[in-house]
Amino acid sequence: MLEEPLAFDYLAQVRGALTGVMALLDLGTGGGEVLSALAPLPATTVATEAYAPNAFVAARRLAPVDGHVVLAQGAPENWSTLATPVLNRPSLPFRDAAFELVIDRHESYLPAEVLRVLRPGGRFITQQCGGSHMAALNDLLGIPRPPYADWRSEAAVAQLAAAGFEVILAREQFTATRFADVGAIAYYLRAVPWQAPGFRAADHASSLRAIHERIQAEGPLAVPAHHFLVEARRPRR
After folding, report:
1. How far apart, in whole angstroms, are the C-alpha atoms of residue 43 and residue 22?
2. Which helix (H) or strand (E) holds 195?
3. Average pLDDT, whole number, for the chain?
4. Which helix H or strand E contains 44, and what residues bound it?
Protein backbone atom coordinates (compact mmCIF):
# COMPACT_ATOMS: atom_id res chain seq x y z
CA MET A 1 0.00 0.00 0.00
CA LEU A 2 1.57 3.26 -1.15
CA GLU A 3 -0.05 6.60 -0.31
CA GLU A 4 0.49 9.54 -2.63
CA PRO A 5 1.70 12.57 -0.64
CA LEU A 6 -0.62 15.51 -0.03
CA ALA A 7 0.09 18.95 -1.46
CA PHE A 8 -0.55 20.46 1.98
CA ASP A 9 1.53 19.60 5.03
CA TYR A 10 -0.21 19.40 8.39
CA LEU A 11 2.99 19.45 10.44
CA ALA A 12 4.34 22.44 8.52
CA GLN A 13 1.06 24.29 9.02
CA VAL A 14 1.16 23.64 12.77
CA ARG A 15 4.84 24.60 13.06
CA GLY A 16 4.06 27.88 11.32
CA ALA A 17 1.36 28.63 13.92
CA LEU A 18 3.47 27.66 16.94
CA THR A 19 5.58 30.82 17.05
CA GLY A 20 5.00 32.56 20.37
CA VAL A 21 2.46 29.95 21.54
CA MET A 22 2.76 29.04 25.23
CA ALA A 23 -0.27 26.73 25.57
CA LEU A 24 -1.05 23.98 23.05
CA LEU A 25 -3.78 21.31 22.98
CA ASP A 26 -3.64 18.26 20.70
CA LEU A 27 -6.97 16.45 20.29
CA GLY A 28 -6.88 12.67 19.88
CA THR A 29 -3.13 12.29 19.97
CA GLY A 30 -3.16 8.52 19.43
CA GLY A 31 0.25 7.27 20.50
CA GLY A 32 1.68 10.80 20.48
CA GLU A 33 3.70 10.17 17.32
CA VAL A 34 2.65 13.34 15.50
CA LEU A 35 2.76 15.64 18.52
CA SER A 36 6.23 14.44 19.52
CA ALA A 37 7.48 15.34 16.03
CA LEU A 38 6.73 18.99 16.85
CA ALA A 39 9.23 19.15 19.75
CA PRO A 40 10.38 21.42 21.28
CA LEU A 41 6.84 21.94 22.51
CA PRO A 42 5.25 24.99 24.13
CA ALA A 43 5.62 25.37 27.90
CA THR A 44 2.10 24.03 28.42
CA THR A 45 1.36 21.17 26.06
CA VAL A 46 -1.58 18.85 26.70
CA ALA A 47 -3.00 16.05 24.56
CA THR A 48 -6.29 14.20 24.86
CA GLU A 49 -6.84 10.56 23.98
CA ALA A 50 -10.01 8.49 24.33
CA TYR A 51 -8.47 5.02 23.98
CA ALA A 52 -6.71 4.07 27.21
CA PRO A 53 -3.97 1.83 25.69
CA ASN A 54 -3.01 4.67 23.33
CA ALA A 55 -3.05 7.19 26.17
CA PHE A 56 -0.45 5.19 28.11
CA VAL A 57 1.75 4.88 25.02
CA ALA A 58 1.42 8.61 24.34
CA ALA A 59 2.22 9.50 27.95
CA ARG A 60 5.49 7.57 27.76
CA ARG A 61 6.41 9.06 24.40
CA LEU A 62 5.57 12.66 25.33
CA ALA A 63 7.01 12.77 28.85
CA PRO A 64 10.61 13.37 27.62
CA VAL A 65 9.42 16.42 25.63
CA ASP A 66 7.25 17.77 28.48
CA GLY A 67 3.92 16.84 26.94
CA HIS A 68 1.02 15.71 29.15
CA VAL A 69 -1.81 13.33 28.25
CA VAL A 70 -5.38 13.41 29.54
CA LEU A 71 -7.69 10.42 29.05
CA ALA A 72 -10.91 12.06 27.83
CA GLN A 73 -14.07 10.98 26.09
CA GLY A 74 -13.92 11.61 22.35
CA ALA A 75 -16.37 13.81 20.50
CA PRO A 76 -19.09 12.30 18.30
CA GLU A 77 -18.18 12.04 14.64
CA ASN A 78 -18.39 15.42 12.92
CA TRP A 79 -20.57 14.11 10.11
CA SER A 80 -23.20 13.20 12.72
CA THR A 81 -23.23 16.70 14.23
CA LEU A 82 -23.28 18.86 11.10
CA ALA A 83 -26.71 20.19 12.06
CA THR A 84 -25.68 20.93 15.67
CA PRO A 85 -22.48 23.05 15.50
CA VAL A 86 -22.92 24.43 19.05
CA LEU A 87 -23.19 21.01 20.69
CA ASN A 88 -20.95 21.06 23.79
CA ARG A 89 -21.20 17.54 25.19
CA PRO A 90 -19.00 15.72 25.90
CA SER A 91 -17.11 18.77 27.10
CA LEU A 92 -13.35 19.05 27.02
CA PRO A 93 -11.87 18.83 30.56
CA PHE A 94 -10.26 22.28 30.42
CA ARG A 95 -11.17 25.78 31.56
CA ASP A 96 -12.36 28.47 29.16
CA ALA A 97 -9.68 30.19 27.04
CA ALA A 98 -6.95 27.83 28.28
CA PHE A 99 -5.04 27.45 24.98
CA GLU A 100 -3.63 29.60 22.23
CA LEU A 101 -3.54 26.79 19.67
CA VAL A 102 -5.61 23.60 19.32
CA ILE A 103 -4.54 21.00 16.76
CA ASP A 104 -6.26 17.87 15.51
CA ARG A 105 -5.20 15.24 13.00
CA HIS A 106 -7.89 12.76 11.99
CA GLU A 107 -9.90 13.16 15.20
CA SER A 108 -13.53 14.20 15.67
CA TYR A 109 -14.18 17.42 17.52
CA LEU A 110 -17.01 19.68 18.69
CA PRO A 111 -16.43 23.15 17.19
CA ALA A 112 -18.17 24.90 20.10
CA GLU A 113 -15.93 23.16 22.63
CA VAL A 114 -12.78 23.96 20.67
CA LEU A 115 -13.89 27.59 20.50
CA ARG A 116 -14.52 27.64 24.26
CA VAL A 117 -11.04 26.43 25.23
CA LEU A 118 -9.29 28.81 22.81
CA ARG A 119 -8.22 32.27 23.84
CA PRO A 120 -9.54 35.16 21.73
CA GLY A 121 -7.36 35.23 18.63
CA GLY A 122 -6.35 31.59 19.20
CA ARG A 123 -6.20 29.18 16.28
CA PHE A 124 -7.52 25.71 15.47
CA ILE A 125 -5.84 23.54 12.81
CA THR A 126 -7.28 20.22 11.74
CA GLN A 127 -6.58 17.67 9.04
CA GLN A 128 -9.39 15.23 8.33
CA CYS A 129 -10.16 12.23 6.17
CA GLY A 130 -13.03 13.20 3.90
CA GLY A 131 -16.26 11.31 3.42
CA SER A 132 -15.28 9.57 0.19
CA HIS A 133 -11.91 8.39 1.53
CA MET A 134 -11.16 4.90 0.15
CA ALA A 135 -14.86 4.38 -0.62
CA ALA A 136 -14.00 2.81 -4.00
CA LEU A 137 -12.84 -0.27 -2.05
CA ASN A 138 -16.34 -0.64 -0.68
CA ASP A 139 -17.76 -0.40 -4.20
CA LEU A 140 -15.39 -3.05 -5.53
CA LEU A 141 -16.32 -5.44 -2.73
CA GLY A 142 -20.05 -4.74 -2.86
CA ILE A 143 -20.01 -3.31 0.69
CA PRO A 144 -22.11 -0.22 1.56
CA ARG A 145 -20.07 2.96 1.75
CA PRO A 146 -19.55 4.45 5.22
CA PRO A 147 -22.30 6.88 6.28
CA TYR A 148 -20.12 10.00 6.31
CA ALA A 149 -20.19 10.95 2.63
CA ASP A 150 -21.09 14.58 3.49
CA TRP A 151 -17.94 15.12 5.58
CA ARG A 152 -15.80 17.37 3.40
CA SER A 153 -14.03 20.73 3.53
CA GLU A 154 -17.15 22.75 2.73
CA ALA A 155 -19.11 21.08 5.55
CA ALA A 156 -16.31 21.56 8.08
CA VAL A 157 -15.99 25.25 7.19
CA ALA A 158 -19.74 25.77 7.56
CA GLN A 159 -19.80 23.95 10.90
CA LEU A 160 -16.89 25.98 12.30
CA ALA A 161 -18.34 29.27 11.07
CA ALA A 162 -21.72 28.47 12.61
CA ALA A 163 -19.99 27.88 15.98
CA GLY A 164 -18.36 31.33 15.80
CA PHE A 165 -14.98 30.71 14.15
CA GLU A 166 -13.36 32.82 11.46
CA VAL A 167 -12.05 30.40 8.85
CA ILE A 168 -8.58 31.34 7.62
CA LEU A 169 -7.71 28.48 5.30
CA ALA A 170 -9.38 25.44 3.75
CA ARG A 171 -7.64 23.01 1.41
CA GLU A 172 -8.98 19.74 0.06
CA GLN A 173 -7.32 17.08 -2.07
CA PHE A 174 -8.05 13.73 -3.67
CA THR A 175 -4.98 11.57 -4.13
CA ALA A 176 -4.32 7.98 -5.17
CA THR A 177 -3.50 5.18 -2.76
CA ARG A 178 -2.08 2.21 -4.64
CA PHE A 179 -2.44 -1.40 -3.50
CA ALA A 180 0.10 -3.77 -5.03
CA ASP A 181 -1.60 -6.94 -3.78
CA VAL A 182 -5.00 -8.00 -2.53
CA GLY A 183 -3.59 -9.06 0.84
CA ALA A 184 -2.80 -5.42 1.59
CA ILE A 185 -6.44 -4.54 0.90
CA ALA A 186 -7.71 -7.22 3.28
CA TYR A 187 -5.22 -6.10 5.93
CA TYR A 188 -6.22 -2.45 5.52
CA LEU A 189 -9.93 -3.18 5.91
CA ARG A 190 -9.27 -5.17 9.08
CA ALA A 191 -7.03 -2.42 10.46
CA VAL A 192 -9.56 0.39 9.89
CA PRO A 193 -12.87 -1.24 10.84
CA TRP A 194 -14.94 1.92 10.27
CA GLN A 195 -14.33 1.58 6.51
CA ALA A 196 -16.13 -1.77 6.30
CA PRO A 197 -17.50 -2.81 9.72
CA GLY A 198 -17.30 -6.54 10.34
CA PHE A 199 -15.17 -7.19 7.25
CA ARG A 200 -13.98 -10.78 6.87
CA ALA A 201 -11.96 -11.78 3.81
CA ALA A 202 -13.71 -15.16 3.65
CA ASP A 203 -17.06 -13.42 3.11
CA HIS A 204 -15.74 -11.62 0.02
CA ALA A 205 -13.54 -14.28 -1.55
CA SER A 206 -14.93 -13.92 -5.08
CA SER A 207 -14.61 -10.12 -5.10
CA LEU A 208 -11.10 -10.28 -3.65
CA ARG A 209 -10.10 -12.83 -6.27
CA ALA A 210 -11.41 -10.54 -9.02
CA ILE A 211 -9.35 -7.66 -7.57
CA HIS A 212 -6.31 -9.95 -7.39
CA GLU A 213 -6.69 -10.87 -11.05
CA ARG A 214 -7.08 -7.21 -11.98
CA ILE A 215 -3.88 -6.30 -10.13
CA GLN A 216 -2.06 -9.19 -11.80
CA ALA A 217 -3.19 -8.00 -15.22
CA GLU A 218 -3.00 -4.19 -14.81
CA GLY A 219 -0.63 -3.51 -11.91
CA PRO A 220 -1.35 -1.79 -8.58
CA LEU A 221 -4.95 -0.80 -7.90
CA ALA A 222 -5.37 2.98 -7.49
CA VAL A 223 -8.03 3.98 -4.96
CA PRO A 224 -8.98 7.65 -4.39
CA ALA A 225 -8.09 8.99 -0.95
CA HIS A 226 -9.78 12.14 0.35
CA HIS A 227 -8.24 14.60 2.83
CA PHE A 228 -8.75 18.21 3.80
CA LEU A 229 -7.11 20.75 6.08
CA VAL A 230 -8.83 23.68 7.75
CA GLU A 231 -7.41 26.49 9.89
CA ALA A 232 -9.75 28.75 11.85
CA ARG A 233 -9.45 31.46 14.48
CA ARG A 234 -11.50 32.48 17.50
CA PRO A 235 -12.42 36.13 16.98
CA ARG A 236 -10.69 38.62 19.29
CA ARG A 237 -13.88 40.51 20.06
Report:
1. 5
2. none
3. 97
4. strand 44-49
pLDDT band at 7 (very low <50, low <70, confident <90, very high): very high
User: What are the Cα distances from residue 182, in Å, to 59, 150, 173, 193?
Assistant: 36, 28, 25, 17
Q: Residue 110 pLDDT more than 90?
A: yes
CA distance 230 to 233: 10
117 near 25, Cβ under 8 Å?
yes
Letter for the amino acid at 119?
R
**Residue among 191, 106, 188, 78 nearest 140 (CA):** 188
Mean pLDDT of 210-236: 98
Q: Cβ–Cβ contacts within 10 Å for residue 84, how many? A: 15
Query: 97 and 103 in contact (C-beta within 8 Å)?
Result: no
Residue 23's closest CA among 91, 92, 97, 93? Answer: 97
What is the dihedral sign for C-alpha 83, 154, 96, 37?
positive
Helical segments of 70-148, H only? 111-117, 135-141
Q: How confident is the model at residue 237 (pLDDT cuts 50, 70, 90)?
A: confident
